[in-house]
């Protein structure tokens, strides 16, 4: 992969909580315009990887470069200004705020150097949010909350959207909606780094896949190659590829 096409580059990243080291030297690249997925069993460090990129967990060592800028030690606010947005695990929708107010909060941070879309423009892109713009977050279904979390991340006009298990706990038809949204956003030019427990979703959505185990990348490759590799899927994920 040439440097010119690499939007995000993570090198030898060591990170954790207090004295607990979770990431033991993670290397990964995200090519501009691609969908990259990060998969692995529970507790291997997927969320910690995203948090370390965002800056809510401070790396111990290693480097993170985004669009040519060293962002290793930046705070989440500063990382967002560089053009990275995270849709967190469990969505974190503000239950007492309306759909519009939730999205408004996402618009405060993020890039300051471009014209960001308005709250209304973003909500209009989500069919199932447009109907509920004055509803409180608490009154939305799981799928609607997930779409709201994505809308809140998009209103800052990120170049890189990171999503942490966006299909978790959703019914199969809603999983498909989330999948379609991710594909649509990528078609519109947003680069995606996706963490997924649903291996089928991860492999379908991705151009390139990294498998994480015990805080290290243990396998990587184009999604179609990983999907065809039953031995790898079984060893690191305990699943076999869908027939
Ligand atoms: N805030 C925290 N403080 C201390 N340890 C943590 C914290 N968050 C996560 N950990 C630990 O770090 C390790 C990696 O957690 P992480 O959340 O990155 O895993 P994950 O791959 O995202 O797992 P899951 O699939 O369950 O979401 C786990 O052992 C977890 O218990
Ligand atoms: Mg996680």
Automatic annotation (TrEMBL):
GO BP: L-amino acid transport
Keyword Nucleotide-binding attributed: yes
SUPFAM superfamilies the UniProt entry points to: P-loop containing nucleoside triphosphate hydrolases
Alphabetically ordered keywords of this record: Amino-acid transport, ATP-binding, Nucleotide-binding, Transport
Highest taxon, organism lineage: Archaea
Protein's UniProt keywords contain Nucleotide-binding: yes
Gene Ontology molecular function, alphabetical: ATP binding; ATP hydrolysis activity; branched-chain amino acid transmembrane transporter activity
Chain ranges of the ABC transporter domain: 8-239
Pfam families per the UniProt record, alphabetical: ABC_tran
Family: Belongs to the ABC transporter superfamily.
Name of this protein: ATP-binding cassette domain-containing protein
Organism of origin: Haloferax marinisediminis
């Amino acid at each position: 992969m040439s440097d010119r096409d690499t939007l995000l580059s993570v090198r030898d990243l060591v990170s954790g909580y207090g004295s607990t080291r979770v990431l033991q030297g993670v290397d990964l690249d995200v090519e501009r315009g691609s969908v990259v997925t990060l998969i692995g069993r529970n507790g291997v460090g997927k969320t910690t990887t995203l948090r370390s990129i965002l800056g809510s967990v401070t790396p111990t060592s290693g480097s993170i470069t985004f669009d040519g800028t060293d962002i290793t030690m930046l705070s989440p606010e500063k990382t967002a200004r560089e053009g990275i947005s995270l849709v967190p695990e469990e969505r974190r929708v503000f239950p007492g705020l309306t759909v519009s107010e939730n999205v408004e909060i996402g618009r405060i941070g993020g890039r300051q150097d471009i014209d960001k879309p308005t709250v209304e423009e973003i909500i209009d892109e989500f069919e199932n949010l447009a109907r509920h713009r004055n509803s409180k977050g608490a009154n939305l279904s799981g799928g609607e909350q997930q779409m709201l979390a994505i809308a809140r991340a998009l209103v800052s006009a990120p170049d890189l959207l990171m999503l942490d298990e966006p299909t978790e706990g959703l019914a199969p038809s809603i999983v498909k909606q989330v999948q379609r949204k991710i594909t649509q956003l990528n078609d519109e030019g947003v680069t995606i780094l996706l963490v997924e427990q649903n291996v089928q979703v991860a492999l379908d959505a991705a151009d390139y896949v990294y498998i994480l185990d015990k805080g290290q990348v243990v396998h990587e490759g184009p999604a179609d190659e990983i999907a065809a590799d039953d031995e790898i899927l079984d060893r690191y994920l305990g699943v076999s590829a869908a027939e």
